[in-house]
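User: Teach me something about this protein's shape.
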Amino acid sequence: MGTQHLTSEELHKKLGEKIKNLRIQKSLSQTTLAQLSGLSVRFISQIEHGQFKVTLADLNALVQALHTTISHLLRGLA
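Assistant: First, the predicted structure itself:
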């Protein structure tokens, strides 16, 4: 059996959902996460909805604000 490959859009949507779930688990609002990460609330919302392709620099800012690692965030996406 072959593995199913996700499109770039599907991966970004799954990543956004994972970021949102982690933010909610940590009882953070989008505003608080934006302040902690140095990113805008609108940008956080776009990432969480899979509407923006996040850069490694942005991802690094998010994982630091969420007290996690990039590897933890990416685990299980593909």
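Now, about its shape. Helices lie at 8-25, 30-37, 41-48, 56-65, 70-74. The chain has five helices and no strands. If you'd like, I can walk through any region in more detail.
User: That's plenty for now, thanks!
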